[in-house]
Structure formats: structure tokens, C-alpha cells
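Sanity check

After download, print the first record. It should look like this:
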Amino acid sequence: MTEYLYNNKPLQKSYNNSYSLAEKIEINKYIQSDFENGMLSFEQMYLIINDGLYGSYTCQTIIDDLLFKGKIKKNPITLTTRSFKPKKKPFDL
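Expected C-alpha cells:
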């Protein structure tokens, strides 16, 4: 498994990191665009989520989006059909 790199360094934890606000936004955009272009594997997403690295929430929303759209049947992290957050219903805010 290869780890996800930002500026040729591994990602820091999601808490107590030294990223500025601009860097945090950039990391989230990179994760999203890398997944859309096929450069982010589920193995890398697994490492980001389980190690509590910055960007884990973005990875979780990507997986939930794929589950809700029906593109995947099982969550590749938990190996169940359970999502990370419940699907919004019409009366939810």
C-alpha cells in the first residue's frame, strides 16, 4: 500500500496539524480530483481514514456518494453496506 502524499510529504493527522486554511482546501480539492481521475485508490483511502489523517472526511463523503448513487454495493473500508453517515431524508435540514 502506498500512502497519499501532499507536497511530497505524507498527510498529517486531522488534529494538531500545521496546515493553513488554504492548504486544507487544496488538500481536499486534490483528494477529490485524484479520485475523479482514478489516481486515488481505495487502499489509499483506507489508510487515510483508518489512520485519522487530514482528508478522511473527504474520503468518507466520496464513498458515501458512491454508495447512494448505487455505483458500489459495499463500502470498501468496512466491507458492509453501511455508509458513514445516513442518507438525508426530505424533512432533514
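If your output differs, re-run the checksum step. Summary of this record's structure: The chain has one domain: 19-93.
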